Amino acid sequence: MVEDLSQQHRLIGDLFHWPETPEEWEPYWLSDDQLAFYETNGYVTGIPILTEEQCDALCEELEPLFDPKHPGNSLFHEYHSNESDSPDTVLFHALGAWRVTPGFHDILWNPAFLAPASQLLGGAVRFWHDQLFCKPAHHGGVVAWHQDYSYWTRTKPLGHLTCWIGLDPSTKDNGAVHYIPGSHRWDLLPITGLAGDMQAINEVLSPEQRATFEKPAVVELKRGHCSFHHPLMIHGSFENRTAGPRRATVINAMRDGVHSDSPEPLLQGVPPVQPGEKVDGQFFPLLFDPKTVGK
């Protein structure tokens, strides 16, 4: 039996260091130019968030999780050995790794994530959920064009943020994330599917919106670097055509104060939070309040 690490709302290992002074936090804040770029385009990228050693440790923890018989498998909110419907287009996708292994637990308290997240959210950072997205070598699995918030409307108001972290270098050839700059200003679109068909979104786009897909921004990242994007940002990733894997972990956060808008559980296996009540508790811990470091 694996301990459910969601009961621990603090660093439990030594993979990350918690800064003790405002000076120690200083290297992690985004610049004014980076914040302005996010405001204009809906994303900001190329931010170092993990060292090589931290990437190695997380990849070591990740490997056993690919086995559906892993003893911690029941702790995942969702687990898909292959999110697509074809063995030729594998996309491993799982929610809840922070409950299973210490490294994926502690990455939530990584200051290199928390400082930028608090700036982009405009306040204290509360955890929403994590994800693993992994594409094996020479596989056609894709993450189809979508807006994250289209899957999150059970929480209100829209005060969310996504951090996409490459555990491998992310390139155009191995399935890097693509963004449609400025699409964070669009209205919420209907869900058209997360895996399998990159063109499905065309069914819900206007001709003007469709034209913007001719020149998406390809977010190529060094290993251990990340991109942050707005919850309405249209994004997706194509197949992995290379001889190596493309592994990534995603941290989804929300501004403290977001409330439930559904009587149903917000995540599988989690007690319901009644509509109008603030999202908090064991599965949605407060990660960081910038006021505590004078920011």
UniProtKB/TrEMBL annotation:
Cofactor(s) needed, names only, are: Fe cation
Example GO molecular function = metal ion binding
- Name the residues that span the membrane: none
Which keywords are on file for this protein?
Answer: Dioxygenase, Oxidoreductase
InterPro entries listed in its UniProt record? Phytyl_CoA_dOase-like
List the Pfam families: PhyH
Keyword ATP-binding in the entry? The reply is no
* Keyword Cell wall biogenesis/degradation part of the UniProt annotation: no
Protein name (database record): Probable phytanoyl-CoA dioxygenase (Phytanic aci d oxidase) (Phytanoyl-CoA alpha-hydroxylase) (PhyH)
